Amino acid sequence: MEKEKQTTVEADKEQLEKMIKAIEDLTVRIEEQDKKIQEKDAIIQKLQRMLFRKKSEKARHAEMMANMPTLFDLEYPEESPSSARALQNIQYSRKKRCWNKDDLGDAERTKIVIEASEEEKKCPWCGEEMEKIGEEKVRTRVIIEEPKIRIEEIYTETYVCPSCRQDGEDVLFKTEAPLPVIPHSFASAEAIAHVANERFVKSVPYNRQEKEWKWLGLSISRRTMSNWIMAVSELYLEPVVLKMREHLLKEELCHCDETPIQIFQYAPGRGSRYPKAFLEGFEGFLVTDGYGGYSQIENTKRALCWAHVRRKF
Fold first, then answer.
1. I need a surface site. Which of 86, 122, 145, 189 has the fewest CB within 10 A?
2. What's the whole-model pTM score?
3. How far apart are CA 275 and CA 249, in angstroms?
4. Can you tell me the distance from the alpha carbon of 150 to that of 218, in angstroms, rounded to the nearest whole number?
């Protein structure tokens, strides 16, 4: 009997040890799973910040400053009742609503006076003509006039001296017409300016401008408009750009940046040969970001951007 009890106790003890070992294994597994879950939560939060928060260095700087431990224990005084009342007053103060935010600006203004007819000027009692004693402003309205197309046919005149002609000599004089904006083209400066303003200021594509011209009574293809812009760019804008580059290379300081929006010159790639060709002849300080293509430009001193340096910390 005593032997059976001892066997039962040993079996229970062995079973208890197995259960304790299983619990310890499960605890270790749970801790490992919790650690993995925390890591995945951190990755998810980082991805959410990348997708939905403002992508600016200010946000990263604010987060960095918030997580940075302070060197001093700052103790703020308790809020006094007077400051609480002042805060309460500020919270309840509201701005006046501005119902009309439209601004008519300095547009050309015309005064329209509604005049009385000759019949209305007669007094309904005695029939005498009434005298004007004042006027009252009733309202203001905005008038938009559509653009108008006008075709100008330019002629030159030829003159002859009749006295010399009688003597057998034809003395002729012919007036000179102003040169066209684009050689052998009917485009005027006003027409080209209108197309350029619609395309680059108002972002109206050429196909929609083509329809607008047709509504106004003139059929001009989008290809013609595009050719106008390219022609005036080559004839008038490119010399200005070249002159600007000439002045730029003579300066002591030059700021360069790689940006998707082409500000000064377009390059099909980001190789070092493009900045080398553009800055050929420049000998001064070159302020750039960390792009390595600028390091191969000779006779220049690189001054890196302090704003980009912050990204390294």
1. 145
2. 0.54
3. 12
4. 10
